[in-house]
Design brief:
Elements lengths: L1 H20 L9 E7 L4 H11 L6 E7 L2 H9 L5 E4 L5 H6 L3 E16 L13 E2 L1 H8 L9 H6 L11 E5 L4 H13 L1 H6 L12 E3 L1 H11 L3 E6 H6 L3 E2 L1 E3 L5 E2 L3 H10 L24 E9 L1 E2 L2 H15 L3 H6 L3 E2 L2 H11 L3 E2 L3 E2 L4
Parallel strand pairs: 1-2, 1-3, 5-10, 6-7, 6-8, 13-15
Antiparallel strand pairs: 3-12, 4-8, 4-9, 4-12, 4-14, 10-11, 15-16
Helix pairs in contact: 1-2
Amino acid sequence: MRNLLLLSLVFILALVLIACGGGSSAPAGTVQITGAGATFPFPLYSRWFYEYASVDPTVRFNYQSIGSGGGIRQIMARTVDFGASDAILTEEEKAAAPDLRLFPTVAGGVVIVYNLQDAQGNPIPKGLKLSPDLLADIFLGRVTRWNDPRLTALNPDLALPDQEIVVAHRSDGSGTTFLFTSYLSLVSPTWEQEVGAGKSVEWPVGLGGKGNEGVAGIIRQQPGSLGYVELAYAVQNGLAYAFLQNRAGAFVEPTLESITAASDAYADQMPEDMAQLLVNAPGEASYPIAGYTFLLLYQDMPDCGKARKMVEFLRWALTEGDVYARELLYAPLGSRVEQKVLDRLQTLTCEGGKPILEE
């Protein structure tokens, strides 16, 4: 209940910031930094920007939650100061913007949410069990009813109804979709061959919603529906979510601890460019659809004033700001990954090679 209240307050705060942040004039001397991208970390970034105003009142952030695809396009077009994405860059994007760098901020979980009543009309709470192949077949349109024998075999204690499964998915370019479809491609050869992974895919079935909030809205309004959203959106909207079978065979609830277990499992394998996925992690405690969310910055930033403020904010967010991440069900970076991110921030420059933190 405490998490639900906190998340509700953060979403209200985020709407206020959007309403007020874009049009109001900043006090003289204020540095204004604009960003756009992923909806996945929107509740956390909104909280960070709000809290940081008391740390440094001379900087103001304006972040537009438009989806990872839009964030990557805008930072590549240099129409914003930073981008945000849950998806790593494609080879084409890296070739088009070789100076663009990824910085993990937190890890989160993509959860399978549903709106379902049992055969007696009672709401089914969180805890529906789903295996990887079954989940893929639902989104492929091969399992279409809630009382399918494969579903009832995994959930013998539930009186699943004879009702159509209404699939919900993202309609926009989305890092959440990238994580979800990357997972399905790993666990289902059929999904990999017929659909594949990406920020936007050709969905075999289902209704599309814009942003995590759009998918959550479909689930709330449509009985018998099932879709995927980031964990904070599921909790904030009071949605039931499934326990997924992981690589070790355990059915795991999406929690801060199980997402952290997934990130810890891969901590020693972080590549130099930090473009790491956490899906289908080993370990009995690991939640299987987890991933980092990233900020995107140029190696050499055009404005030293903005660059310095951005780097100082990120250093605060990754250290002192991690308390807000935990409150909102995002997993702070582990100490090894955090240090790698902080070290990489030190290499950034501005205005043609000037050191940012020594300017």
